[in-house]
Amino acid sequence: MRTPVAMAASFPGPYPMTSKRPARGTVPPLAAGLPPVTSAWAEEAYDAQPVARSSAMAEALRRVRLVAGTTATVLLTGETGTGKGVLARYIHRLSNRTECAFVSIHCGAIPENLVESELFGHEKGAFTGASERHVGCFERAHRGTMFLDEVATLTRGAQVKLLQVLQERCLRRVGGQDEIAVDVRVVAATNVNLAQLCEQGEFRRDLMFRLNVFPIEVPPLRERREDIPELVRRFLARLDLRNRKSLTECTPDALEALCHYSWPGNVRELENVVERAYILEQGSRIGIESLPTELTAPRLAEAMQEVLSTEQPLAEARVAALNAFERSYLVAQLRRHRGVIGKTAAASGISPRQLHKLMTKHGLHKEQFRAGGHAEH
After folding, report:
1. Per the domain annotation, does 375 fall within a domain?
2. Among residues 221, 247, 272, which one ends one of the domains?
3. pLDDT tens across 75-131, in order?
């Protein structure tokens, strides 16, 4: 079970924002004037300073800044992995509660029989196993911010008690008699439509209205592609701080592939892919060979489409299409056989010498495809 953690935020302000969308086939440039990659920056920047080069994310941050200084309850909506927790912390940092606790809890990660105890606390002897008094999340967040992630997963009983806290600003611990006053700013998040859950009888309508005072839609990553280069830079900076590989950049073709992928898992998926590529990469920059096949396959289709849409003579178009296919094929085979030249050549139906020649032609190196061992010849 995920343990709620109280955190105080005190970070530098956000970066400037732009909203110009890059042309297809180009990689959005990093904004000028970014601070150098330092240890403190790498560890704090992602959570403290949401990236907002895109107009969609810039609008979300505009709404965040409007509401942050108030006491209004905020409901963050959006797909899984879009960074709702990052925005919740940012709201706390910009509020007048920043010196007090930020308490985050994933409502769906708590066993059903412990939800009310975790949120509102319990007295000694309240139930079997309650050997001592437990102070709940809302009391720990007094005068600070309470972040309820995946609030739609709360049990009906917990929904009733949460509504009471929001309405009356007081709570009663499980098994207790005393009412305890709490001053808490609530930020909730969900990846489902609460109105639909209300129609289905799975969520209280009165609670939805209490939570939905100021809604903010967090856009999916596919609608904010301009943010990808800076997100990648931050992820790599943080990884390199911990692992010391001096690997903080991507090659242009790798960055282009990252920018053009649809990212169904959003920012969380991007972070995982970058970390995997960081581990696999043996060179000085993340190359496209270190990225998953699902990211590189669409580039072959795009390359073919570009060939078909050009006015090149047939002979030139044929060469361009062959090169695009040839490189993608070699990358797939080398990845499948982890850079082992003999196995890759045999699977491709060519000699090791021919494979070496093709790899040189396309700028490929067997070390890029190794996964924790030495490739054989």
Report:
1. no
2. 221
3. 999 999 999 999 999 999 999 999 999 999 999 998 888 888 889 988 887 888 888
3-state secondary structure the chain: CCCCEEECCCCCCCCCCCCCCCCCCCCCCCCCCCCCCCHHHHHHHHHHCCCCCCHHHHHHHHHHHHHHCCCCCEEEECCCCCCHHHHHHHHHHHCCCCCCCEEEEEHHHCCHHHHHHHHHCECCCCCCCCCCCECCHHHHCCCCEEEEECHHHCCHHHHHHHHHHHHHCEECCECCCCCEECCCEEEEEECCCHHHHHHCCCCCHHHHHHHCCEEEECCCHHHCHHHHHHHHHHHHHHHHHHHCCCCCCECHHHHHHHHHCCCCCHHHHHHHHHHHHHHHCCCCCECHHHCCHHHHHHHHHHHHHHHHHCCCCHHHHHHHHHHHHHHHHHHHHHHHCCCCHHHHHHHHCCCHHHHHHHHHHCCCCHHHHCCCCCCCC
Residue 374 lies in a domain: no
Question: Which residues span the domain enclosing 141?
Answer: 5-221
pTM score, whole prediction: 0.71
